[in-house]
Amino acid sequence: MDSAGNRQAPERTRDEIAALFETHFDRVARYIYLRIGNAADAEDLASDVFVRAVRSADTFVDTGAPLEAWIFRIARNISVDYIRQKSRRPVAVPIEDAAPMPDPDNDPEAPIELKEDLETLQEAIGQLTEAQQEVISLRFSDSEMNSTEMAKVLGRSAGSIREMQSAAIKRLRQILEPQQQDPQGQ
Amino acid sequence: MTSNYDNTLDICIGLIMQGGTVEDCLRRFPEHADELEGDLRPLAASLAGGFTPNTAAKDRARLQLQAAMAGAGGSTIDAGPAPSAGLFDRVRDAWRSWSAPAGAPRWAATAAVAVLVVLVGGSSVVAASSGALPGDALYPVKRTTENVSLAFTFSETGKAERHLALAERRANEIAKISASANSGLVASTTANLEAHVASASQIITSIESDSTAASLTARLRTSSSVALVTLQGSQGDTQSLASASAAYGQALEETAARQEDSYVAAPPGSIRMQVTDPPPSGVDRLFLEFERVEVYLPAGEHSRWVTVFEGSREIDLIRAANAPIVLAQANVESGRYSRIRLTLASSRIVLGETELPVVLASDTIEIRRPFAVNIDDLTTITLDIDSAASLTGSGLGGFSISPVISVLSREPAPPSASPTPTVHPSVTPTQQPTTEISGVVDVVDATHISINGLEITLGPDTVVDGEVEEGTEVTVHAVLGDAGGLLADTITVGSPPSAASTPTATPVPATPQPVRTVIEGVVGSIGADTWEVDGRSVMVDAQTVIELGASLGIRVRVEGVLESDNSIRATRIVPVLLPGLIPTPTPPTQPNPTASPAPGATPSPTPTFTPTATPGAVAVQFTGRVNSIVGATWTVGDRQVLVTTSTSIEGLPLVGKTATVTGILADDGTVIANRITFPSLFATPTPTSTTAPETTPSPTPITTPTPFPTATPTSTATPLSSPTPPPTATASPAPTVIGTPTVVTVTGEVLHYDALGGELIVDAEEGPKTVEISGTTNIIGLVSLVVGAHVTFTGAPQPDGSILASSITVLDS
Question: Does the predicted interface ipTM exceed a cut of 0.90?
Fold first, then answer.
């Protein structure tokens, strides 16, 4: 087997990235949103992911893993950079950008409770370990993303992904259950 | 090590993400019910909903990506805006980055301006102009926006598709203004349509990739259908229709000329590899880990290995003794395959409590076994691994395995019954047609083989399976050589299963029998006595029966006799249409428009065609469950749906949800979607009306201008996430829509699994259900489909009480 992989023509990689944009932009944005918790910034960062991928196309090495895995790795790195930047230098966010939910035009019938659930979930995800956050954010970003796909993205075995996922869910349960029993925090 | 619960939880998350409920999981895994409920309940609402990016944000991101695509060619562009950057910052950054490179091409400046226009909100004017018609004040803005859009499209494929979309847009505009606008406006709009078609044609004929060219040619045919039907449907002048028809005709000729010299991938069929084994005694477990499964497609200089599976898949051969275990299933190009190659990664054996490694004698196994994969059909290959003969050694000296494999294949029936016993056409429409010949060998030498008087050339790529000598009964798959003769692709000793009950040809006739053949392809041109079907000349005469609907741009099946110059003298030409999408009623047989009526020609009972305006685009609308989303290809119900950049997607697209698709039926059966709508995730699911046609079906003769006919939808699905009806283990009929079959979702334990027969019996709550598996059935799950497994499947009830499954999810085993 050729574990080292082959360098692919950058033009071809760019074309594939452009094609992936249409099908994967929402998934990447969802993944980033679950990592950083700000919808507007998640949309901007998702755009950055594809731009960065195009500019780095000549560094892409075809190891047999799908290009999507590479895209999600870029998304992970951009999210981590963003979180680090945020933690070092708090940024004043305009009030209209602060709401973590997307444009209501997209889901006008979304009940308030669900939005609150999502916000609560995102906050809870923020309390997980870095590795657990990656697993949960990836898994919840896309209905097609199963443990095998996540293993490709994160470079781990599917078994270890399932273990981490299980541990992360347990931790989320610990965080969320008290809040649900006492929603006012009293 | 991953615990059983980790796996269970993983399966449950997958189910919920795809539309299932917590209750589904609790019922499937009662042993973990308490733990699962505690873990999943707090997350269920969030998992079912989720965050969807703003469409405006995606549009903005697309522009930034396109700018980056341009910049990657030489310009230097800074990274996109920083998180939470304000609008002013974004504009400033974008402008700086665009104005920086001194040698940037001229179009780059145009692109930069367009980016800025969109960023600062100029898009409102652009949006307002989108509905403008020739003569309107905003129409120039619309055309300018189109030109900018073309400038932003950097791939040749994208440009060609864009040109075709714009040509269709022009046709729409002409249809709207032709009754009232002045002739000058109509003429200039028509000229623009012709220019777009010519530009698309130029790209298609010069594009490097053959497969891309084939795909674009198919798009060109569809565009031709859409535009011409639109123009025919209008009451405008006939000059526009004639000009557009000529432009598309020339483009189709140009692209057809290119295809004559190039290889074009055939439409896909499905292949399933499964493993079975009579186990050796005394062995508790014998594992074989597969790394890759490939099949060989002999196609002259385009011969190649096609990967069916790549990854890691470990199979316990002892379990495979009870029922075949599916190793892999994939869509592959249809055609005749000649070999199977398995790459093994490892093997291990379990004897009592002891597990021992098994040495692989070879990590690659190649099996010569010709088989066919037909379009939209499933070929099942069963690898019968005789582990008793394969395994050598003992626990003391170590084990080694050299798999002894025999292959059983279950191929679908050939596309049509052949009236002549010895020749079975096996057609791959866009590839060179293959003909199957069975009979007794008269003469064989190094370069030729003669069967029942028919001489066939042996080439360097000919695969011979078994010892062939005079008197041997063989089956030959041959392609048509350039000189008019037959060139053998594969030769297999013995007659094919499909021919077993059919008498073969009279042994050694004095003169060769006429070779009857059938091909499928798209009609490229229609002449008085010669048609062109996928580049092949097809001669028609008064005896030729031409079914209604066989016309330019339509995929047809041609039955006839093969002539020495490779042309086909047609006895019958039938439009190939898929059942389910095509509305009734059945029209009578259409007489051959270019020849005198065939005496004695009787109408064919071909049941499902509805005439359309020439050249035959069919607008369809149907509702079904989204079974998969793979790139731009979706499976909705049992139908492949192509999502293009022009497709409008309303709602959150998720696998497992019900979607209503409106689009054009392409000649390969795919629906090219114009619009896909999903019901709101948060509203109570209600059945979508699937009977709203764009216009009333009008089964008028094909030469009469007619608006789009519409199709009866194939199915409507029960949303799995419906909060009201409990998704229990019983069959739950979907809301009934008049004239459409219902779809049911059933859960239960597999009592019987006949992999070869494609049949399951599932112990549902209301009693055993027989489930049929077709080539398009989507089987999902982390574990194998075996007897004892719990499955949830969705499908359409059949008249015999069985259910034809569109998807099966294996929950556990």
Answer: no
